[in-house]
Amino acid sequence: MRRVTVDIDSLVAEGVVDKATAEKIAARSGTSTTLFAIQFFIGVCIAGLAAASALLDPEFRLIPLGAFALFAAGLFATHYAGKEWFVATHTSVIIGTIGLCAWVLKMNPATESFVPIALLLLVAGVMSKNSLLVGLAVVATTPLLNLSGMYHHAMYGLIVQKPLMTIATYTLIGVGAIVLARKLEGAYARMSGFAAGTSFFIVNLGFWVGSLWGDSLGGNRYDSVITPTQFALAWAALSGLLMVAGLFLNKRAAVNLGGVFLSINLFTQWHEWFAREPSALLLGSVIGIAVALLFAYYNMRADKRVVS
């Protein structure tokens, strides 16, 4: 599904569409810019309310009640307020759910707590028809496989201790979500598709770290049973296969996603092998520009085919 932004008043003034058609387009449009800005401000205030509550109640005695009230109010509004209030209502649902998840983790700060957290996010997402919460439910399972992120003084890190198991697990979850999406309709199909996309993103993270460090399969971390080169080659093959399948099935998103991860793989290995060579950096930059122009050309041709 393609989305475009148009100025309806200009189209009417230029005679491109008549007033009746303009009214039909406006009726099917999303939230106006002004209302969106108002809702964004409301969302910021809700986030501030939640943050202040956490600071005022560090022991989390009343946090679960407040978080549940916020979730319930947002859930009620998602069903009975118009779709134009989507931003504000879903912000309330999301922050309320995250507050409940924080309370669960506060009560038991252990890895196994992410199981009820994932279930909580999934249930809340399905009840509110919120794809983001369903995607976060998938992400919440990653600590169970020792996958995490790190930040320290302007330094960011990604930790994937079991690349092969991560790839296998989230491939199965992604395929299952795709199968489920084909059996569902409407918002539920969209949520399943989002879960599948989140799963395949995590799969690529597994390939990315594996292509740099390999996988010891539980042995000595420095003795790779599966080498970084094997991960890199498998990642390139699967990304290329996704692009080819997208071309044959006319799925532009598949082509672009395959291209993005193939490019990440290429430049990761390029700089891993030739990081200290200025000429390699120069050549890599030229290749990067060429790849970007190639994808721009492909997408422009695809847009023209859609219009024609």
Summarize the structure.
Among the domains are: 31-140, no CATH class; 227-308. It is globular and about 60 Å long.
| SSE succession | HHHHHHHEEHHHHH
Radius of gyration: 23 Å
Provide the low-confidence segments as ranges.
Answer: none
Shape: globular
Spatial separation of the terminal alpha carbons: 16 Å
Helix segment count? 12
Number of strands: 2
Side by side, the strands of the main sheet go 1-2
Task: Report the structural category.
Answer: mainly alpha
User: Average pLDDT across residues?
Assistant: 84
Helix fraction?
over 70%
The amount of beta strand, in percent, is: under 5%
Question: Major sheet, described briefly?
Answer: 2 strands, antiparallel
Architecture overview:
With 308 residues, this protein is mainly α. Among the domains are: 31-140, no CATH class; 227-308. The chain has helices spanning 8-13, 19-27, 33-56, 63-80, 86-107, 114-128, 131-140, 163-183, 186-213, 228-249, 252-274, 278-307; strands at 147-151, 156-160. The protein has a two-stranded antiparallel ribbon. It is globular.
Please describe the structure with a list of short key phrases separated by commas or semicolons.
single chain, mainly alpha, globular, 12 helices
Secondary structure: elements and pairs:
Blueprint: H1 8-13, H2 19-27, H3 33-56, H4 63-80, H5 86-107, H6 114-128, H7 131-140, E1 147-151, E2 156-160, H8 163-183, H9 186-213, H10 228-249, H11 252-274, H12 278-307
Antiparallel strand pairs: 1-2
Helix pairs in contact: 3-5, 4-5, 5-6, 6-7, 7-9, 8-9, 9-10, 9-11, 10-11, 11-12
